[in-house]
Specification:
Distance between the termini: 24 Å
Number of strands: 15
CATH superfamily of the largest domain: Enolase-like C-terminal domain
Number of domains: 2
Low-confidence stretches: none
Number of helices: 16
Strand order of the largest sheet: 4-7-8-9-10-11-12-13
Shape: globular
Strand content: 15-25%
CATH architecture of the largest domain: Alpha-Beta Barrel
Radius of gyration: 21 Å
């Protein structure tokens, strides 16, 4: 079996999303995906990665991944190229599952759990405007949002009520009044539903250490589930010190790519919980390696998941397999609105704030015919023999100028 084409799909309605289809000479088509900064990822996919993988056997996932990674390492690996490689890798695992007629979780080695715990990141999209409910009117409607999520079976949510204040001082100083305003939606949630709803706080590394520690002190009476990305992920020692100053667990960071990017984070015990994203970090295999590495440190894992139905399905399969899973992030505003428009994924959480696995071979998700025929679809295809068919090692970079 050979890879005959690498295809990217973009819809005008979903500009953050790029779906990747990997075609083979046997008719199997694998689905992958990445999210955000799509122009760079698309350029890397078609300009750098596709020429390396066309003509390769798609079942040789580890060999293809290593070959591509070795090539992109020459010019820095942790940006657009890695996001594109992540999407390709997910598609290759999907092909593997379809070839053997097995779900992804079985290819990984089977389940350790049947239901996947989730929290809702309160973004808005289309008719489901969870963001407005917690952020508008001084957070007065955050309690209404919490009740709505509980009605939908979700008992954990993430908001970012302090971010908007960072612009005034470029994150250098937060005032007492700004903290009080930031606490308003947290109080509204607690007043409305008490401890029935877990609350995570995203910080988006907007603040310096003195400000984030002040925010953490103000949040401590509310039994917060976690603080995420309290400082830029490159400041590992400072993040560890923030964690020592607060009783609230720290989570980070999906912004560190591959197991090598996360090694120092774990060695220095930067946070109590690790977060990574399968459509950014290198893909399915890399996520499992990161999870295994974290497990040796006794650190649980959150799977960052703010893309489309393909990433969502990949996260669920990984989560069913990974022993040290903490949560899979999910976005109600996405899976209730555009997931069914793009794909045959229609699942909702169970009453205990868990997801079931998609059924079927590979990821268990297919694109809808209507989405593939949409007049807003932008399709780009790389096809042909490729420049490196059959190669598994890069060798002398300059001796093979066509491999670049």
């Amino acid at each position: 079996m050979k890879i005959t084409a690498v295809e990217s799909l973009q819809w005008a309605e979903y500009p953050r999303l790029m779906v990747v289809r990997v075609h083979t000479d046997t008719g199997f088509i694998g689905l992958g995906e990445t999210v955000d900064k799509i122009p760079g990822s698309k350029g890397a996919l078609h300009g750098t990665i596709a020429p390396l993988v066309l003509g390769q056997d798609p079942l040789d996932i580890e060999g293809i991944w290593r070959f591509v990674f070795d090539n992109i390492m020459y010019h820095g690996f942790a940006g657009a190229e890695l996001r594109a490689l992540s999407a390709l890798d997910v598609a290759l695992w999907d092909i593997l599952g379809k070839f053997y007629g097995a779900p992804l979780v079985h290819l990984l080695g089977g389940r350790v759990r049947d239901r996947i715990p989730t929290y809702n990141t309160c973004i808005g999209f289309g008719a489901v405007d969870d963001y407005r409910l917690w952020s508008a009117d001084g957070g007065a409607n955050a309690g209404k949002l919490a009740r709505s999520l509980l009605d939908d079976g979700v008992n954990a949510m993430k908001i970012w009520p302090f971010d908007r204040f960072s612009e005034r001082s470029l994150g250098q100083h937060i005032t007492h009044d700004e903290i009080e305003q930031g606490l308003a939606p947290v109080r509204a949630i607690r007043d409305a539903v008490g401890g029935a709803m877990e609350i995570g706080i995203e910080c988006h590394f907007r603040w310096n250490r003195v400000s984030i520690e002040r925010i953490a002190r103000a949040l401590e009476p509310y039994n917060i589930l976690f603080l995420e990305d309290v400082l830029p992920a490159t400041n590992v020692d400072e993040i560890r010190e923030v964690g020592r100053k607060t009783s609230i667990p720290i989570i980070g960071s999906e912004l560190l790519m591959t197991r090598w990017g996360l090694r120092e984070w774990l060695e220095k015990h930067a946070s109590q919980t690790l977060m990574t994203d399968p459509v950014w970090n290198g893909g399915i295999g890399e996520t499992r390696k990161i999870a295994n590495m974290a497990e040796t440190f006794g650190v649980p894992l959150v799977l960052h998941n703010v893309a489309g139905p393909i990433c969502h399905a990949a996260c669920l399969h990984l989560a069913a397999h990974i022993p040290n899973l903490y949560f899979v992030e999910s976005v109600r505003a996405f899976y209730q609105t555009y997931f069914p428009l793009l794909s045959d994924y229609h699942d909702r959480p169970n009453p205990d704030s868990t997801f079931d696995l998609p059924e079927g071979a590979g990821l268990g998700v297919s694109l809808n015919a209507a989405a593939l025929e949409s007049h807003t679809l932008l399709r780009h295809v790389s096809e042909g023999a490729g420049l490196a068919a059959g190669r598994r090692a890069m060798g002398d970079h300059w001796a093979r100028e066509e491999i670049r």
